[in-house]
């Protein structure tokens, strides 16, 4: 499970600055789930190969009213969902009543918390930091988020403090393709999960093991093993009519990270809304294989169907590699066919790609359409090899590769995708200069 780190503190202490610094270093899966979660921002950081999910909370200052109170409530929710809390204070401003109030709330929750004294640039740390020890949080890490000073030490400590992960996953005994069922509230995830497991050809194993809130369900279909990651937590509810559990972005993003193939469920009656697009963006940025299920297709007017199809055409151009299914989870229509796309996407995402084959495709691509000149020198792309699976990573070696423009990267992506007949998975192109 992707560990969750929440950045907490009163406004203006440097939370977003730290968040941006930590997530920018890679293709950050930064998404602002406006509306659903108010001001919380989610992003992925990579600390020495440890992937972390960061939540930047809106900020708490105490005594909030109206919308601010709601925001503070969201910050507290983020704390609930976090493995480790980074509590930021401002070294220049000194200790404030708001800091004390936040510290109190954190102590009640007894979450592992690291105190981050930010903005230590231009202060005498011996004097400026002393008052913060009164907060009783324990370890204190001085940082300058704007320049990155102290951030590495802080994050190393974060990584050390994470719960053991690898062993746990082994014990869960997940087998076969891991399918994540994700989508906004009410799109029909629970109905789909029940439908998928209720099919004649399906044998559901053990009582599902739970990891945080998503439920992992092992089953077999036509004697092939699968694991369903159920973010709706249907199997935990005693009764399907029971009120739907709180939708959690953290839960969803963790399921995306942990899945091999994500089935993104969309409500055809509502059409594509921004939250669907955000989720889709997160799946792609995580590099996961994707199958899109347009649910509630039953009983729709022809006119509405045409409208939804046109919307898909227009807005899903960036995921044109993903199969789209029009289904009714309620009636079961089209549900079985999802497996064909899931299998194909998984195959594509995990195919072994030989250096020989990749290099031949690269050479062909370059001969068809040369990389541009940079300062009078032609960018040279020499050979390619596989650098990873799910998503397939294609590593291209050459000269001046840091200058390859994004349109050319897209051209290469497209060419590889076509030549390798990849279906349902994003492809990641990486460059290395020199041999
Ligand atoms: P947030 O409201 O907690 O998210 O705070 P921001 O990240 O927006 O930062 C508030 C202000 O403090 C911005 O103007 C930042 O540039 C500045 N800031 C953030 N970190 C530092 C730091 O380490 N040193 C200094 N001098 N300024 C900082
Ligand atoms: P979740 O929040 O994404 O898990 O959504 P649920 O599975 O709880 O479904 C939300 C509502 O949509 C329920 O009232 C379902 O009966 C209904 N629903 C789900 N799938 C379909 C479908 O294919 N067609 C129609 N008409 N309704 C559906």
Write the layout of secondary structure elements.
Elements: E1 4-8, H1 15-24, E2 31-32, E3 41-47, E4 50-56, H2 66-81, E5 84-90, H3 97-109, E6 113-118, H4 125-128, E7 140-142, H5 151-160, H6 166-172, E8 177-182, H7 189-198, E9 202-204, E10 209-211, E11 214-221, E12 224-230, H8 249-258, E13 261-267, H9 274-285, E14 289-295, H10 302-315, E15 323-326, H11 338-350, H12 355-368, E16 373-374, E17 377-378, E18 380-388, E19 393-399, H13 406-419, E20 428-433
Parallel strand pairs: 1-4, 1-5, 5-6, 6-7, 8-12, 8-13, 13-14, 14-15, 19-20
Antiparallel strand pairs: 2-3, 3-4, 9-11, 10-11, 11-12, 16-17, 18-19
Helix pairs in contact: 12-13
One guanosine-5'-diphosphate binds at residues 183, 185-191, 232, 244, 295-296, 298, 328-330.
Give a written overview of the molecule.
Helices cover 34% and strands 25% of the residues. It has 435 residues and is an alpha/beta fold. The longest helix is centred in the N-terminal third of the chain and has 16 residues, at 66-81. Residues 25-38, 166-171 and 236-245 have low confidence and may be disordered. InterPro entries: G_ENGA (IPR031166), GTP-bd (IPR006073), GTPase_Der (IPR016484), KH_dom-like (IPR032859), KH_dom-like_a/b (IPR015946), P-loop_NTPase (IPR027417), Small_GTP-bd (IPR005225). This is GTPase Der. Residues 3-166, 177-350 form the EngA-type G domain.
């Amino acid at each position: 499970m992707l560990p969750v780190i929440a950045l907490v503190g009163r406004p203006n202490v440097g939370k977003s600055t730290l968040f941006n610094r930590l997530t920018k270093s890679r293709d950050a899966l930064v998404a602002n789930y406006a509306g659903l979660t108010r001001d919380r921002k989610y992003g992925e950081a990579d600390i020495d190969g440890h992937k972390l999910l960061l939540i930047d909370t809106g900020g708490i200052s105490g005594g909030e009213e109206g919308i601010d109170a709601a925001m503070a409530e969201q910050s507290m929710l983020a704390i609930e969902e976090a493995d480790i809390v980074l509590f930021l204070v401002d070294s220049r401003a000194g200790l404030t009543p708001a800091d004390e109030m936040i510290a109190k709330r954190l102590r009640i929750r007894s979450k592992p918390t690291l105190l981050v004294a930010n903005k230590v640039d231009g202060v005498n740390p011996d004097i400026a930091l002393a008052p913060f020890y009164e907060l009783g949080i324990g370890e204190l890490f001085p940082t300058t988020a704007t320049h990155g000073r102290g951030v590495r030490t802080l994050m190393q400590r974060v990584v050390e403090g994470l719960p053991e992960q690898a062993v746990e996953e082994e014990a869960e005994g997940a087998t076969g393709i891991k399918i994540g069922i994700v989508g906004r509230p009410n799109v029909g995830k629970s109905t789909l999960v029940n439908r998928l497991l209720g099919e004649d050809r399906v044998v559901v194993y053990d009582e599902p093991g739970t990891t945080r809130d998503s439920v992992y369900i092992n089953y077999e279909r036509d004697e092939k093993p699968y694991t369903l990651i159920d973010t709706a937590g249907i199997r935990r509810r005693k009764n399907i009519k029971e009120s739907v559990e709180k939708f959690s972005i953290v839960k969803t993003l963790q399921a995306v990270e942990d899945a091999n193939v994500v089935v993104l469920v969309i409500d055809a009656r509502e059409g594509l809304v921004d939250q669907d697009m955000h989720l889709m963006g997160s799946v792609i940025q995580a590099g996961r294989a994707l199958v899109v299920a347009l649910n509630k297709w039953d009983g729709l007017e022809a006119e509405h169907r045409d409208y939804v199809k046109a919307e898909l055409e227009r807005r899903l151009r960036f995921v044109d590699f993903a199969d789209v299914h029009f289904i009714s989870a309620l009636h079961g229509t089209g549900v079985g066919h999802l497996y064909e796309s899931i299998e194909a996407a998984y195959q594509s995402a995990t195919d072994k790609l030989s250096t020989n084959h990749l290099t031949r495709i690269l050479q062909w691509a370059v001969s068809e359409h040369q990389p541009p000149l940079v300062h009078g020198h032609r960018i040279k792309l020499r050979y390619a090899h596989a650098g990873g699976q799910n998503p397939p990573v294609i590593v291209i070696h050459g000269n001046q590769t840091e200058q390859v423009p994004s349109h050319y990267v897209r051209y290469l992506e497209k060419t590889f995708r076509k030549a390798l007949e990849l279906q349902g998975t994003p492809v990641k192109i990486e460059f290395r200069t020199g041999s």
